[in-house]
Amino acid sequence: MKARKLILLIILSALLFSCRDSVSWEGLSEKYLADEEVGTLIFVRCTEGSNAVVEYYLKVTDKSVDSPDSTAKWVLFAQGEAVIGKNGLGKSSEGDGKTPVGEYAVSTAFGRYADPGTLLPWKQITPGTFACDEEGRYYNTIIDTAAVHHPCKGEDMYHTSPEYDFGMALDYNPSCTYPLGSAIFFHCKGSKSWTGGCVAVDKSLMVDILRTAVPGVMVCIYPDNL
After folding, report:
1. pLDDT at 27
2. Range of the domain at 95
3. 207 φ/ψ angles, rounded to the nearest 5 degrees
4. Residue 121 lies in a domain
5. Is 14 within the bounds of a domain?
6. Is residue 46 within 8 Å of 52, Cβ to Cβ?
7. Is the pLDDT of residue 9 over 80?
8. Residue 147 DSSP code
9. What is the pLDDT of residues 92-109, one digit of tens each?
């Protein structure tokens, strides 16, 4: 029995290292440079504990007057410090205080304040807007409790400030399977040096991203030392 467990651990470790070796920041850049549906790339480089650095890139195309061919490249538009989950990386369940690892599209931008002029789909946060973390049909969705007649006990987004003054919802757990985790956002920093599992940046950077991002945003969250 012990020998079988040891073999399983060795196999699992090999798979984990193999997966990690297959990802690199350079590889991610090349991957999404070739993807015509991605025009904005955000790297969340998680350094230590709940600390991270965010790099925000826009895809630009250089067109030559003498040639019909064009060349796309990533241009670093902004960067800044960020915080992630209080328990670091590796989200697997609701309430574990961890930020998920991987690559996530943005489903919608949102805010307690008015749309700052984003080209992304926009959801206005109003009294009664909740991020539902309860098992059921609304799990891992942003809802208007009055409209759906659900007395949600989840996160009251309207009264969560400055965190939800502006933000973006990531497509983590798109099947909304309970209890794999919910409400993974990229939002403004609050007073804490960590989040419940989201990625948080200074409000000025958040607004800059919303005002300049083009549709097709991909957020890549990994340890810095890929």
Report:
1. 97
2. 30-223
3. -65, -40
4. yes
5. no
6. yes
7. no
8. H
9. 999 999 999 999 999 999
